[in-house]
Amino acid sequence: MGLASDSPAFPFSTTKLSAASPRFCNPISRRIFSDVAGDLTISVDGQSFLLHKFPLVSKSGRIRRMIAESKDPDLSKLELVNVPGGALAFDLAAKFCYGSNFEINTVNVAHLRCIAEYLEMTEEYQEENLIIRTETYLNEIVVKNLDKSLEVLCACDGLDPTVEEIGLVDIIDYYQRVIVAMRRTGVRPESIGTSIVHYAQTALKGIERRHVWDSGPLVGDNQRVIVETLIDLLATEKITSVTLSFLFGMLRMAIEADISLDYRIEVEKRISLQLEMASLDDLLIPARQTSDSMFDVDTVHRILVNFLQRIEEDDSGNLSPCGYESDDGLKSPSHSSVLKVGRLMDGYLAEIAPDPYLKLQNFMALIELLPDYARIVDDGLYRAIDIYLKAHPSLTDSECKKLCKLIDCQKLSQDASSHAAQNDRLPIQTVVRVLYFEQLRLKSTVSSSSSHLQYTPSGGGCAGSLSQRMFGGVGGGSGVPSSCVSPQRDNYASLRRENRELKLEIARMRVRLTELEREQGVMRQGMRDGRGGEHGRALLASISRGIGRIAMIGAQERRSKTKTKKSSHSQNWSSDGGGKISSRRRQKPSHVTYAAS
Asked: Which residues form the NPH3 domain (predicted)?
């Protein structure tokens, strides 16, 4: 005897259980029949179910086989292990065996389908058994609705590997068909993009919150299928509503899942279309656990190559430098975008430079990729190279020279040049180049200052020609007051005096540098033997005096320009000015600041 239950009018929507109806998912065993004692106790995940053999063996091939194979004729206990869905799923299957009413919906259909497969509830034992009932619901209800398909797919989490054996994850294929149908019927790309993002955020939880140092679980086979399918959809759609954080999240999952390189390249191409909008954290993609390096430099290298190829294609078409609207809704990269990417890459180089396992050829390959016009100044590049030299003291002299040749010394600011001139990590040749271009810059500054004093426009309290300002306007001139002329004359004389002294100092430095070139081999050998300290200190002292002289002349020149009313256009190179190189503070890795070595 058992509890009577009405047959449902529709197989997936049943009447609610009455208050007297039995509940099976409890910590303690329950009796199903009020007048017949249970004869079989089944344990699932530590929970006991006091049931009857007959309704179970009539629908479950697994339980029938376990009882038949038992040597105990009075078998009263069974333990089921590795049950998909656990005790809750078994509770629903037991209700089905007893004919109790419950509703099959998007929340439980995945668990019911898996437990039915586990218990072998096929039509071999009873018509319209649980497998066929759940399959019918999936085919008639779920796959015809996008939202329901998404809910069922998300409910598959934790059901591996049964969910893969029965092909339930193939629902993603139905989702793909829906997206294709939406595109064919003229749905806007923005709406399709929003749907893909929503799908991924639900099926791949935390995709936009995956950071560099996440220690979460690796991507499973189920998620691998989803990632590959979504990448295929992105590759065939012209979507502008997909954010960079979403794309980088997809890329990280693709790397963790170790999917085919072709899929990853598709995401990288999509990222390269908006690379100038990326942040430094986006680019800090961790390397796989099988790699010694901390960061995936090869992936960033490919993204940058795609970005630069797009620039070359735009240049070959003689397009407007301001960018144009392309077929995918994205503008071609303008010069300002290239400069943004240049600054972004300099910051990235500084972040990865302390990695002790970063190979020199990989580091140099990233530097050499960017064209010269991508950097207005090379301060950021110099900082990254300096960090790399500090973190890799085992580099040979030839490797250091090869790396430092990538620095354009003409593009270094005055502060960076001052730091480089006293940086003992740089090769001697690099220091000489820095000093040479500093000398040229100083010559240009002095020349422009002299020209400014000679050709100041007339008009104003201290206006007039140079002769009038020096001799007080004698002979019917403009009558410039001597109090105004005297400071100008003193300034000019002082500047000429400093210029002569500077020329002498530069001549002495040239002689010293010539001697240094001649004795370079001897000094290097002496430093190896511990005898080159005196030569090195003498060189640094000479360089410091030269740099100090340059700074002094620059300061006097600024004071001179401040006193003239027409000098507001000149650039201020004070020690607190914009020539300093900023350092981005992060917990890891540490950075080098431009303090005196």
From this structure: 160-441
- Alpha-carbon distance of 316 to 299, in angstroms, equals 26
CA 118, 123, 125, 129 torsion-angle sign:
positive
Instruction: Write out the two tokens for 246.
Output: 């979403």
Cα 243 to Cα 252: distance, rounded to the nearest angstrom: 14
List Cβ neighbours of 182 (8 Å cut-off, separation of 6 or more).
Answer: 191, 192, 195
Task: Identify the residue whose tokens are 């053999």.
Answer: 53
Whether residue 311 contacts residue 338, with contact meaning beta carbons closer than 8 Å, is answered with: yes
Give me the residues of the chain with pLDDT under 50, please: 1-34, 208-218, 318-330, 456, 458-485, 532, 561-597
**What's the Cα-to-Cα distance from 255 to each of 127, 148, 287, 295, 574, rounded to whole Å?**
46, 29, 8, 12, 48
Instruction: Write out pLDDT tens, residues 546-578.
Output: 555 555 555 555 555 444 433 333 333 333 333
SS3 category, 44: strand
Tell the burial category of 430 from Cβ atoms under 10 Å away from its Cβ (0-12, 13-18, 19+): buried
Which conformational region is residue 550 in: left (phi greater than 0), alpha (psi within -120 to 50 degrees), or beta?
alpha
By DSSP bridging, strand 40-44 and strand 77-80 are parallel
Q: For the chain, what are the domain ranges?
A: 40-142, 176-412, 413-453+489-524+535-597
Point out which residues pair with 10 in neighbouring strands: 13
In the Cβ-directed half-sphere of 20, how many Cα atoms lie within 13 Å? Answer: 5
CATH number of the domain located at residue range(s) 40-142 in this protein: 3.30.710.10
Neighbours of 572 (CB within 10 A): 11
Q: Exposed, middle or buried: residue 289 (CB in 10 Å: 0-12, 13-18, 19+)?
A: exposed
